[in-house]
């Protein structure tokens, strides 16, 4: 094991957290959540668990940090895809939004764990940081979306949540679960392929059509 040198300065601590998040991101791409532990994380980093505890106390804290990063990336991409100075037709906006959702499926995959698992085992300080960042994005969208898609400001948060929860449900069906695959095989039930982008385009289009008349 390489010698571990504890970070002292804030930028060093951020670098350590980036290393931790990178390790968890790689593991989550290859294995289910329940197979990732502080031990598997520490082993890949070449650290002891005691050293890992200097930065995080639970794996859920790491997943919350990952979710915050993905949340930032998703909203930044959405702003770029629906820029100010152009009023989008519903079909055009739905297409652009679906592209962003398809490119940021990791945000929704993490969202599948967020409320029931991740947010139940983190410090209130970590959770406050996460919620502060999320609601800052919501506030920005409440200002931005009415200018480009004609939605009333009071409906923006509801629209964002509808899209988020639909995408979270869809993305879990796009990931292969060997147990589900085996159960359906034995039942002789064919599982249809899910076109995530197309499904999201249709759903966003439906939502925008609804709010067009509100």
Automatic annotation (TrEMBL):
Q: Could you tell me the superkingdom of the organism this chain comes from?
A: Bacteria
Q: Which keywords annotate this record?
A: DNA-binding
State any single GO MF term.
DNA binding
Chain ranges of the HTH tetR-type domain:
14-74
From the UniProt annotation, which stretches of this protein bind DNA?
Answer: 37-56
Q: Which InterPro entries match?
A: Homeodomain-like_sf, HTH_TetR, TetR_C_34
Q: Name one Pfam family in it.
A: TetR_N
Which protein, by its recorded name, is this? TetR family transcriptional regulator
The scientific name of the source species is Candidatus Olsenella stercoravium
């Amino acid at each position: 094991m390489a010698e571990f040198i504890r970070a002292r300065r804030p930028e060093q601590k951020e670098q350590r957290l980036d290393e931790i998040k990178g390790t968890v991101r790689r593991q989550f791409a290859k294995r289910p959540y329940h197979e990732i532990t502080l031990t598997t994380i520490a082993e890949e980093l070449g650290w002891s668990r005691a050293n890992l505890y200097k930065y995080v106390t639970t794996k859920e804290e790491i997943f919350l940090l990952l979710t915050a990063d993905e949340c930032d990336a998703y909203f930044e991409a959405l702003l770029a895809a629906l820029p100010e100075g152009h009023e989008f037709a519903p079909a055009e906006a739905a297409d652009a939004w679906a592209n962003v959702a398809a490119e940021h499926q990791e945000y929704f995959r993490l969202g599948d764990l967020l409320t029931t698992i991740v947010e139940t085992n983190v410090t209130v300080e970590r959770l406050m940081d996460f919620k502060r960042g999320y609601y800052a994005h919501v506030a920005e969208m409440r200002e931005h979306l009415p200018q480009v898609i004609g939605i009333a400001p009071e409906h923006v948060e509801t629209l964002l949540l509808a899209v988020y929860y639909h995408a979270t449900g869809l993305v879990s069906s796009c990931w292969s679960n060997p147990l589900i695959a085996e159960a359906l095989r034995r039942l002789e039930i064919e599982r249809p392929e899910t076109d995530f982008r197309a499904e999201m385009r249709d759903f966003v289009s439906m939502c925008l059509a609804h709010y067009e008349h509100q």
